[in-house]
Amino acid sequence: MRKRSYLLLLAISLLTWHCTSNKESEMKKEDNSKSKKTVVYQVFTRLFGNTNSTNKPWGTIEENGVGKFNDFSDTALKEIKELGVTHIWYTGVPHHDVITDYTKYGISNDDPDVVKGRAGSPYAVKDYYNVNPDLAVDPANRLGEFEALIERTHKAGLKLLIDIVPNHVARNYQSLSNPEGTKDFGADDNTNVQYDVNNNFYYNPGQAFEVPDFLNGYKPLGGDAHPLSDGKFDENPAKWTGNGSRASKPSFYDWYETVKVNYGVSPDGRKDFDELPAGFENEGYKKHFEFWKDKTVPDSWIKFRDIALYWIDKGVDGFRYDMAEMVPVEFWSFMNSSIKMKNPDAFLLAEVYNPSLYRDYIHKGKMDYLYDKVELYDTIKHVMQGHGLTDNIPPIQEGLKDIEHHMLHFLENHDEQRIASPEFAGDALKGKPAMVVSATISTAPTMIYFGQEFGEPGAENAGFGSPSRTSIFDYIGVPSLQRWVNDKKFDGGQSTQAEKDLRDFYKRLLNFTISSDALMGEYADIHQFNRGNTEWYNEKVLSFVRWKGDEKLIIVSNFNAENTYGFELGLPSDIVAKWNLQDGEYQVKDQLYQQYSSTLLVKDGNARVRVDVQPLESFILKIQ
User: Fold this and answer.
1) What is the pLDDT of residues 217-262, one digit of tens each?
2) What are phi and psi of 9, to 5 degrees?
3) Residue 614, domain member (yes or no)
4) I need a labelling partner for 214 at 20 to 30 A (CA). Which of 158, 273, 415, 602 fits?
């Protein structure tokens, strides 16, 4: 009996081990981490190649100019690649509302009363099956021109992302390019009810939409006349607004140019769809895909899945999802597992700002990467502005250590202020130590925003919105970028020396990150150790170590813009042991500029290296 029980337990144990082993094997295969770091270059597509420098507020496309898909020439893409970039995020590609008249191409005009800016918000998408006509030399062939850009991008050795905005669409969504059998959002909705699980929108039956009261002197198009600009927009019954406002007359600060998409969540919060079983956060995308195969899901889920697969079939390598946390995590399980079944290497990046949701959207929603905005970015920004302490950075890494690879790092994007703007740091050089920390402190991808590498301040008053952010709503030029573009030579021929030097810094840093083994290996904080044990080391300096195999790095950054700091930086004894450092002297050399070197002295299991770090300087010290 005892033997039989033992054999039964052994069999159960082996079965459990086999299942666990298979699950771990599947998860490992589906892990999107790579052997080297990833760098994403976000570029606002309509601004990149625009060489017009008129920069008139609210200027038309004829007055201020616009960039085109064709501006991303082989030369331009080669230069972006050589900056140290692996992925390029073409922002503003799907056809969104614009004020420019394209009626001769069969495209209806958009109403300025529900369009932000003259060029329109890229997050008020009007047609998901085509691209922004502004970006094409021949708007009739706009999709063909984008397909050619996909081909050029791949030829350059880059992968590309575009936006998908599942939470909301333009108030006047109307696709001219639907594949056969595909219906527009809302085409089959029952508009007599507030909610139905298969309605694409939420409605206020019996109430017509009203344009919000404009505030602070705002007038559509800056007050310029337009035949549709009359304070009205025909929508009856009124739909809920993109940010969730249920008012038939949203406020000026609501996302009034968009309507909220219904994912089968009733107005009282009930989920009218299946939820993932317990433990499914530990399953790979294949199991998630199988789970949804026999389930009935809301119509909006199917529409957005089909949109994503349409672009994957065209060669797009991934997506950046706007405001992903406003859409149920179950939808993301359905959506992303479908994408991964078609392209396991698809790069899926999501905007999620609530830290309590991070793990659900990664593990249940099958996101590859989320913005590390409210923790790392916000903390580093405070340090750059002079009122934050580097002491606050190591606890962030500790708190995210189980998901650190999934938390994409950045210092600029289209939503955030430019580093060089007075509202942020007022000096692009203050981004240098921050960028070293952001790009090297974890295995996560790094993202930079076009123009960041030149210190672009975003000072232009484009129309809708205020300076400090490069406008995403209007036709405008980006002066520092234009100097590098240099009449489409893309050679920096008009760049200032300061711009050339800053781009050289970014090029050195980013290329190091994508070639380093250690940056995909282990991390340990040494900042807190040195705060308590190293004279002259302080709260404006940050240090940590990275290692993998034979590559061992000591990274030190000085965030102070005025003071040089010199100290004997210490390595804790556990790092000395892990690195198997025997007593003696080891040469260390900076990997950014290959100029600074020092000596690491190990004695009795303790290690110290002399570091003299100038204002805003960083070292990536490699043990030789």
Assistant:
1) 999 999 999 999 999 999 999 999 999 999 999 999 999 999 999 9
2) -65, -40
3) yes
4) 415
